[in-house]
Amino acid sequence: MPTPSSRVSGITPSGKDGWEVHFEAMTRHQAGEPIIMLSVGDHDFHTPAETVEACVRAVRAGHHHYTQLPGIPRLRAAMAKATSACTGVETSPAQILSTPGGQAALFASALATCDAGDHAIIVAPFYATYPPTFRAAQVDISIVDAHAEDGFQPQAAAIEAAITPRTRAILINTPNNPTGAVYTHETLEGIADVCRRHDLWLISDEVYWTIAGARKHVSPRSLPGMDERTLVVNSMSKSHGMTGWRIGWLTGPEDFVTMLISLNLVSTYGLPDFISRAAVDALENGHGVADIAERYAKRRTVFLDAIRGMNDVTVRGSEGGMYVMLDVSALEPDCEAFAWALLEAEKVAVMPGGSFGDAAKGHIRISLCQPDEVLREAATRLKRFVGSYKRDAA
Questions:
Q1: Rg of the chain (C-alpha set)
Q2: For the chain, does the N or the C end have fewer beta carbons within 10 angstroms?
Q3: Which residues share a beta bridge with 166?
Q4: SS3 state at 42
């Protein structure tokens, strides 16, 4: 057959990607093996019933035709209101591009800020799709590590050192997946200063903004001189319990968003009408938002309390989002080997930190997407495993 394009064939490099532990555990779990799945960030509960019923009403009312390319007006207005709350900057519907999930908003931001052959900087640890998203846009990338000993707060000087004459954008994520770190005002001001002085776009993934824990979420868009150069990626997947609905949006300068409507023309051709109307109902009424934030805050406390006193394991980040990050390097520098051994010995599936960049090597990511009693049981198994791992190593 003819040769496929390098644009697509180069999205994911060949070889290991660090997700093998999860896929093996998922296969065994689906086959009936009693594995505790703490490796994936999908809610263990369903979308709030009010949102589901709103969708059913919309389908029955005949709302299953084409929609406006940037999103139906009421959806853009509801998303603009949510963005105002998220970023602290008053936002108009004209600054909103509705997309099928946050990933589509991320891809749109990569295509719109960088040409093929340009350069972007990604702060690590990062969500797994970040590098391949830029590769799909044929953009060269550099990874800048945020270090565990700094609480995974990125350093502006390290980001600035990675800038080249071809650099067009920086991508950050707060509250962070996988670490649960919530970037401080000081951290974000340092990054904003770099963007202003070098005239760069800042792409800020803020999909976990409602699950920031005790530390207040700060959006870099709210800082001086950043509104006109910040693109905010958002989604209803985590905040409203709507992972499978594929509803997200991108916030940016009005002229920029107007230009991006053409991308929806040649990619999605708009969103499903009935899903859009369900999303409007969820956004306008806040279905599930407070409950989900409270649920994950409680689960974080439950799990951290349950592992308290575990020697040679250090909690890193873990302030917000849906994850806890554990430094196991004192026991086993190879976090993938640790995760495989934990799966085999205790039937607990976790993600090796190296799956999210070198900055998270020596760590494991714990998903909090399980009920309290399951998290307590997983903590018991983990503590038992750590104890035996130490004895075996000795």
A1: 21
A2: N
A3: none
A4: coil
Q: What is the pLDDT of residue 389?
A: 87
Element (H, E) at 259: helix 254-266
- The secondary structure of the chain in percent helix, strand, coil, rounded to multiples of 5, reads 45, 15, 40
Mean pLDDT for the stretch of residues 74-90: 98
Segment 149-198, tens digit of pLDDT: 999 999 999 999 999 999 999 999 999 999 999 999 999 999 999 999 99
Check: CB of residue 54 under 8 Å from CB of residue 282. Answer: yes
> Strand 323-327 vs strand 314-316: parallel, antiparallel, or unpaired?
antiparallel
As a whole number of angstroms, the distance between CA 159 and CA 38 comes to 32
Secondary structure class of 121 (helix, strand, coil): strand
What is the reported pLDDT for 45? 97
Collapsed DSSP state (helix, strand, coil) of residue 122: strand
> What digits encode the pLDDT tens for the residues 215-244?
999 999 999 999 999 999 999 999 999 999
Angle at 204 between CA 200 and CA 210, to 5 degrees: 160
Cis peptide before 272 (omega within 30 of 0): no
Angle of the 73-87 helix axis to the 273-285 helix axis, nearest 10 = 40
Residue 393: CB atoms within 10 A of its CB come to 9
- Among all chains, which residue has been given the structure tokens 């589509």? 104
Whether the Cβ atoms of residue 236 and residue 276 lie closer than 8 Å to each other = no
Instruction: Answer yes or no: are the C-beta atoms of 191 and 170 closer than 8 Å.
Output: yes
| Pair 192, 156: CB distance under 8 Å | no
Confidence of residue 10 (pLDDT cuts 50, 70, 90): confident
Q: What is the pLDDT of residue 14?
A: 57
Instruction: Return phi, psi of residue 389, to 5°.
Output: -65, -40
Unique residue bearing structure tokens 């954008």: 169
Strands (E), 26-166: 36-37, 96-99, 119-124, 140-145
Q: How confident is the model at residue 12 (pLDDT cuts 50, 70, 90)?
A: confident
CA 125 to chain CA mean position, Å: 11
